[in-house]
């Protein structure tokens, strides 16, 4: 009291009092071989077959014709070699353990064969990575490269160490009717969490943050209240509504689900194949003939067949049924072709070493900086499940909502919802027992505001009146003509003003959403971190 005015204390985390309330709230190569019928250096002979172990041309060697099928075959030691001085590029085969066919797809243009040397990294819409961290979500670090983002998905928590900014959408935590939404807030100076939990609701609710700095008032009583002979112009034996007196103390009634009163507040809470054929000039098993061409449908060597010379061009050609087969007993590896619908060239790039041809069998998975996946779910964000492997994270982005079924933990940054001057931020909280959402919406601001959560459990007090307050002959040690702030008197009764969105006062609490015990207000579901 000061002078003749009694001012009921504002409610704090430990004392009852009065308060105002506010609410708004993601071609390989082929050669065709031509032969001729005339058996001399200029002949073009026709054979049903040629049995030789070596073909040494004096110029460019052409095997096959464009309108016929070309079949080149040999055992698992079959090779196709291109030489340039002391350097050579060799196509070789692993010993087949099953039948395999490698196809050069139809396409127009000149294409390089992709090998385990990683020469095709980032080509054809692929992406590469220097390696990712397990459980770390990937992000584009360039047009065709991905690397770690700051977001980690352990399967239990989605975590980032930087600010989380949502601009263009809302944050919804929980699932109406099945999971109550919880916002956990850590404090740098303690090992505990403060949790904002949505209480049971019978309709969508909006909690508006006021345009002012301050601390949330909780039902555990972190904000405070007070009551004399002459009071508000009244004298004599007076009674304060929603209050009781004992000795020299006037105690404003605890708020209940049906009666107005004061209350304390509580809060916790990721070498395509080919074969090489050699022919000879001498037309017998030991001959070494020279032809400008050989016309035959079969060449059967008695040992290793060499076609072409290292200093000359080799051209192998045939129709779309052309094959190159490497056999090992009953098993074979076949290089075949799709029927061309355009001109396509597949190149073996210059490189020293032995390289495997990459195929759709996935033999080059994870080679050359590439990443692999066993397959992902549409709209599901990817995360590293290994250094070169990615898979589903728990986060889904359908273009409207970004959804995760695990806890969202932000450590090292802030969460920003909305865009100043263009979109108001909304935090939607679901309750497991109802089909509605509770929304925390930022009200109009004239400056940056900070809302501090107290070190206490409790329920947010709203302007709709879910928290409350109340005033006799001698009051707080004062006598005489006294006035109680935020109150009025009629007859012998002092009535503390009802709380509004702009004025302090007392309030009763909705029995559907709150419980009140000895003046302590809690949510009907006892919403906390456990």
Helix and strand arrangement:
Blueprint lengths: L4 E2 L5 E2 L32 E2 L6 E2 L5 E3 L7 E5 L3 E6 L2 E6 L7 E5 L4 E4 L23 E7 L2 E9 L3 E4 L3 E3 L4 E3 L8 E5 L6 E5 L7 E5 L4 E2 L6 E2 L6 E2 L7 E2 L2 E4 L2 E4 L11 E2 L29 E2 L9 E2 L6 E3 L6 E6 L2 E7 L6 E4 L32 E7 L2 E9 L4 E3 L2 E4 L4 E3 L8 E5 L6 E6 L8 E2 L28 E4 L2 E4 L2 E4 L17 E4 L2 E4 L7
Parallel strand pairs: 1-40, 3-26, 4-27, 5-28, 6-29, 9-30, 10-31, 13-35, 14-36, 15-37, 18-38, 19-39, 21-40, 22-42, 25-44
Antiparallel strand pairs: 2-20, 7-8, 11-12, 12-13, 16-17, 23-24, 29-30, 32-33, 33-34, 37-38, 41-42, 43-44
Question: Would you mind describing this structure in some detail?
Answer:
The chain has 530 residues and is mostly beta strands. The radius of gyration is 42 Å and the shape is rod-shaped.
Over all CA atoms, what is the radius of gyration?
Answer: 42 Å
Largest sheet: 4 strands, mixed
Q: How many beta-strand runs?
A: 44
Q: Roughly how much helix do the residues carry, as a percent range?
A: under 10%
Number of helices: 0
The largest sheet has its strands arranged as 6-29-30-9
Structural class: mainly beta
Low-confidence stretches: 19-40, 225-229, 277-282, 469-473
End-to-end span in angstroms?
Answer: 42 Å
Assess the beta-strand content as a share of residues: 25-35%
Question: Mean of the pLDDT scores?
Answer: 78
Shape descriptor? rod-shaped
